[in-house]
Amino acid sequence: MRNSAGPGETVASRIIRILECFDGFHRTATLTQIAERSGLTMPTAHRLVKELAEAGLLRRGQGGAYSMGMKMWELGCAAPDITRLQEGAMPYLQDLYEATRENVHFAIRDGHETIYVVKLSGPTSISLTTRVGRRLHWHTTGVGKAIVAFSDEEVQEEMLSVPLPRLSPTTIVDPEQMRLEFARIRESGFALSQGEHETGTFSLAAPVLDRSRQPVAAVAVTLPSSRANVAQLNAAVRTVAIGITRTLVG
Description:
- The chain is an alpha+beta fold and about 250 residues long.
- It has two domains: about 10-75, Arc Repressor Mutant, subunit A; about 80-250, GAF domain (Beta-Lactamase, 2-Layer Sandwich).
- Helices cover about 45% and strands about 20% of the residues.
- InterPro entries: GAF-like_dom_sf, HTH_MetabolicPath_Reg, Tscrpt_reg_IclR_C, Tscrpt_reg_IclR_N, WH-like_DNA-bd_sf, WH_DNA-bd_sf.
- One of its GO terms (biological process) is negative regulation of DNA-templated transcription.
- Keywords: DNA-binding, Transcription, Transcription regulation.
């Protein structure tokens, strides 16, 4: 539970507290849960939640629990940078899925996390916890490592300035080992995540670059380790990343 709102806190900051009660692990919440997670008093939470629901930003289900409303989705779709990336990448990502029939991810970096903005999968794809809008630690994913490895050294050192949590036995958590990983990624042109986020999975990713050759996103194929063929995946993923780069650069 957060600290209760202070007397000088704005209405906007209290609304942000409420909206941050929802994420990939908490898609619904009762009014009591919202008050507890946000640190707001029940009367304040009740008043603001009611207004958010009336505006369509929250939706009240039949059981009384709240979830994000359709208006939030509409506002998210209006983000110009993300929309441009999605629209430019989608034809290539669809081709990549048709060629592999495995999970195809397209992600960006936001601070020390990667955010998935496109995910394509089908009945033969391995079941994963990833979804559009979900945030993951950058160092545990192929897309995250591809983006950071091709970033400036200043960005790399910033990413390594905080502890890297270990999510599996193969997660790289040592900064010096990660620097060596960056060098390998830049030399080969692709990044690997071998069970570093989810045991038994394999991901190969390549960066999408802007005009100044800085990474703006990354594309990856994720599949069971038992089905991984680096040579085939490398050719397919890097070809798609180059195609998306050329489309976005124009």
